[in-house]
What we know:
- By secondary structure, this protein is an alpha+beta fold.
- It has helices at 67-80, 91-116, and strands spanning 3-14, 26-36, 40-53, 59-60, 86-89.
- It has one domain (3-89).
- The radius of gyration is 25 Å and the shape is rod-shaped.
- The protein starts with a strand and ends with a helix.
Amino acid sequence: MAQEKMQVIKEADLTNNCPECFNQELKLTFSQKHKFGRLYHRTTDEVVSEIKCKKCGSTIYPVNWTEDIERVYDYYQKMVGKPQGSLRFTTLFYVIILLLIISVAIGAYFLIQKGRG
């Protein structure tokens, strides 16, 4: 079964006021989903963002955003862009493929030898 993990691709400290406690210590985080399996490591193109206040610890949802927070968010979202998804195979995958190729080659060799004799 594949494990899913969100890896941070961009973090930024914002100087906008928190709508909850009116403090100027917000943190914007962009994370990308990664899936890890025994045979592959897949990086998806799914990006999740979150704004949290460092002082009160509350998550600032888009409903509570001010125009300033929206402008800053749009700016950082353009900086992150749209990351590409990718797929990498593990060493175990290549070992299994190599063993399959060797077993097919051995089977073909014995079939050819059996046909001659």
